[in-house]
Amino acid sequence: MPQEVYHHVFENGLTLLAERMDHVRSAAFNFLIPAGSAYDPADQVGMASVLAEMLTRGAGKRDSRELSLALDNLGLDRDESVGQYHMRLWGSTLSRNLLAGLEIYADIVQRSLLPADELEPVISLSQQDLQALEDEPRQKVMVELRRRHWPMPLGRDRRGTLESLARITSPGLTSHFQKRFTPKGTILSVAGNIEWTALKDQVARHFGDWKGEPAPTLALETALGGVAHIEKETTQTQIALAYASIPFGHPDYYAAQGAVQVLSGGMAARLFTEVREKRGLCYSVYASYQTFKDRAAIVGYAGTTNERAQETLDVTVGELRRLTEGVTADEVQRVQAGLKSSVIMAEESTSARAGALASDWYYLGRVRPIEEVQAAINALSPEKIVDYVKTYPAEKLTLVTLGPKALTSPV
Amino acid sequence: MSFHHHVLPNGLTLIGEVSPSARSAAVGFFVRTGSRDEAEPAVSGVSHFLEHMVFKGTPRRSALEVNRDFDSIGANYNAFTSEENTVFYGAVLPEYLPQAVDILADILRPSLRGDDFDMEKKVIIEEIGMYDDQPGWCLYDHAKKAFFDSHPLGNSVLGSVESITNLTRDQMAGYFERRYVAPNIIVSVAGNFDWSAFVALVEKHCGDWSKGDAPRANVFACQSNPRIETMKKETVTQEHVLLISPAPGGDDPLRHASDVLAMILGDATNSRLYWDLVDPGLAESADVSFHDFQGAGGFFTSYSCDPEDAEEILARIGAIFAEVQKNSVTAEELATAKSKVLSRVVRSSERPMGRMQALGMAWMYLGKYLSVDDELQAFDAVDLAAIRETLDRYPLVKPAIFALGPVAEVRNCFANA
């Protein structure tokens, strides 16, 4: 089945991507706007999170209730999330409602009302979100890992602090919105049962007059790295670690993916087998991959009862390092089978495809044809993966633990 | 899409929906057993522990071989245990369906080897520990038990560290023999596959599974149990509160109206609770959901907030529920909720995994097939009369209320509304 992928860059810098999927009845869209937490003013971290919440409290001629009702009457499920570089606005609905939905989103991204009297409740929600993190140890340990592993401002917690949130003002928020919500560097991707010409015309009509400057270049500091422990009386100890990998777009990217899959791709993968199945040390243990344009990391996680935490840490790091000793052909076959399944089954999901289009374009400046991805998966070999892990071994780990007692770090 | 149904001589039920344009095929084995079928507290958690043990090997395969075989066909697979069902499922590219069925059918006759049993016991205890550190979960587990009281739906799915530690391999084997019989299992399949080939496959692998009855005792509605209970836990930062009241069961004609009512009351967007509590920043989250079981159900309302606001929020929810109990919902609210539901039903039907699960559950609870259009029609048919009837038979205004957090006592401000 041939893919139908389209793209167009408007004069104002907005990039529109689309994939027509005629076997579905829905459509999904995805905005990536260069307004992530890394662009928050240094003394008002949390600004992007507050903005994400405020965005849908009225736009254009509709107040908060009218806007919510208009979107719900289109059956448009939606969410906003804040990453480091981007704010992501996602939506999904029946394909016949997509164009009407985009017209409303044109108001949201260009003419959000940001009502001054709603700022205080939204800041209250953001403060509670921060408090709630204390009750979510699995998330908290990851927030702290990112804070240490990535250089500032990439390492920021998008939630900010109670102090930084309290400094946000309505004029400041409006000014931030006007500067950061720009067509330059914004990617709008759509996937589903859509017609390209009608979509392009609708976007031209409603987003064509959008103006703005590109996002500023950020100066990155030096990452903290190292080892930290957060003390808390819990039943399990949380373990989170990270070490350098290569970014999406690097020629050896697929070998890095292969390494992560050998570690954690399925239930016969290394970490699940050695830490959970053979030793019963954890319920949850995994490795994953995080990338920016110029840097990336492999992230490891395990949650384990306190008495066994040291052993869990030692075994997990041992497995990360043992990859340099070799990877079998059977392991690579399983990795290939899993990756191929994911790629093909993603064709069933409009939101998965909308996300993949935007991600490809942001990192690579183009959308990879499915044949290219499949060929790269087929080209994986034990040698390529082992070469990669020898070049980028699990050394110089950033390690954060959370629990009653600190652990002895194997780094 | 075309629907097919067949029952093997041993009582195993096969159902399937073919969708030639799908990229994958999804298959699931639905065993009608869960925590409510655990007759004594001594075996609390056996259904869930057994679910884990199913993956730990058979006469033909070791645990590692099970996992390797699934991974080499690129299967997206897992299992879950609830109060009433244990479901084992996987989605694969169409060419791998025969292997997927081979593996699933094999593991559903597990060896339950002693070494594997002892090792996996540790994993279950780790899982219990993981949930122990999640206040929302602790609250839910405790509240469910207290609300259902002596009704078996109150049984813990995970069990306790004590019950799991003391559980023996033979107790699990006995439970397996009694519950995992062919007439108690439904095999559901959806996506791009050939039905007759599928029937032949399942017949070949499962035709010799034992017959036998696996009756379910104690199927009855649960009573309303209004009260308030506070659990003080100083290591928790926010206050977490859960309100539960009886609702229709899984085969009740009012279940669609219940879903819609719960959405109007407490969906993430545009609901009564959203506008009154979340939008003004009083509660970080507040929602209402409808959970249905065999012969019983519950409306679950939950919120979390700064501890000092817990009582005010409870009072506000009381006022909202009292108003809806009296005046029901508006035609506009109903229309908006239906737009949302329509969109969600269509989207969840686009993946074979979604259809396979829906098919299995519809057969389990209703003994019948519901196409996507049937589902859409059932939601579309919900009118104000149905909502009124739901409120009359399952009033919202006398819930059981449970709180967990740093507050020593949350007073029952709900009733004062």
SSE blueprint and pairings:
The complex is a heterodimer of chains A (411) and B (417).
Chain A (H helix, E strand, L loop, with lengths): L3 E6 L5 E6 L5 E8 L13 H8 L3 E2 L2 E2 H10 L3 E6 L4 E8 L3 H14 L7 H15 L3 H13 L12 H5 L3 H11 L6 E6 L3 H12 L19 E5 L4 E10 L7 H12 L5 H8 L6 E8 L4 E10 L3 H14 L6 H18 L3 H15 L5 H9 L3 H10 L6 E6 L8
Parallel strand pairs in A: 2-8, 9-13
Antiparallel strand pairs in A: 1-2, 3-7, 3-8, 4-5, 6-7, 10-12, 10-13, 11-12
Helix pairs in contact in A: 1-4, 3-8, 9-15, 10-11, 12-14
Chain B lengths: L1 E6 L5 E6 L6 E7 L14 H9 L8 H10 L3 E6 L4 E7 L4 H11 L6 H19 L2 H14 L12 H6 L2 H11 L5 E7 L3 H12 L20 E6 L6 E9 L7 H12 L5 H7 L6 E8 L4 E9 L4 H18 L3 H18 L3 H15 L5 H9 L3 H10 L6 E6 L12
Parallel strand pairs in B: 2-6, 7-11
Antiparallel strand pairs in B: 1-2, 3-5, 3-6, 4-5, 8-10, 8-11, 9-10
Features:
heterodimer, A: 411 residues, Cytochrome Bc1 Complex, Chain A, domain 1, five-stranded mixed beta sheet, globular, B: 417 residues, alpha+beta, 15 helices
Question: Can you offer a commentary on this structure?
Answer:
The complex is a heterodimer of chains A (411) and B (417). Chain A has 411 residues and is α+β, with helices and mostly antiparallel strands. Helices cover 42% and strands 20% of the residues of chain A. Chain A has 15 helices and 13 strands. In chain A, strands 1-2-8-3-7-6 form a six-stranded mixed β-sheet, sandwiched between helices. A five-stranded mixed β-sheet of chain A has the order 9-13-10-12-11, with helices on both faces. In chain A, a hairpin with a 2-residue loop joins strand 4 (58-59) and strand 5 (62-63). In chain A, helix 1 crosses helix 4 (119-133) and helix 10 packs antiparallel against helix 11 (309-322). The longest helix of chain A is centred in the last third of the chain and has 18 residues, at 329-346. Chain A is globular and about 60 Å long. The mean pLDDT of chain A is 97. In chain B, a hairpin with a 4-residue loop joins strand 9 (285-292) and strand 10 (297-305). The model of chain B has no long low-confidence stretch (mean pLDDT 96). Chain B has two domains: 2-206, Cytochrome Bc1 Complex, Chain A, domain 1, CATH 3.30.830; 227-405, Cytochrome Bc1 Complex, Chain A, domain 1 (2-Layer Sandwich), CATH 3.30.830. Chain B is 43% helix and 18% strand. With 417 residues, chain B is of the alpha+beta class. Chain B starts with a strand and ends in a 12-residue tail after the last strand. Chain B is built from 15 helices and eleven strands. In chain B, the strands form two sheets. Chain B has a six-stranded mixed β-sheet, sandwiched between helices. The chains are: A alpha+beta (411), B alpha+beta (417). At the A-B interface, helix 2, strand 7, helix 4, helix 10 and strand 12 of A face helix 2, helix 4 and helix 12 of B.
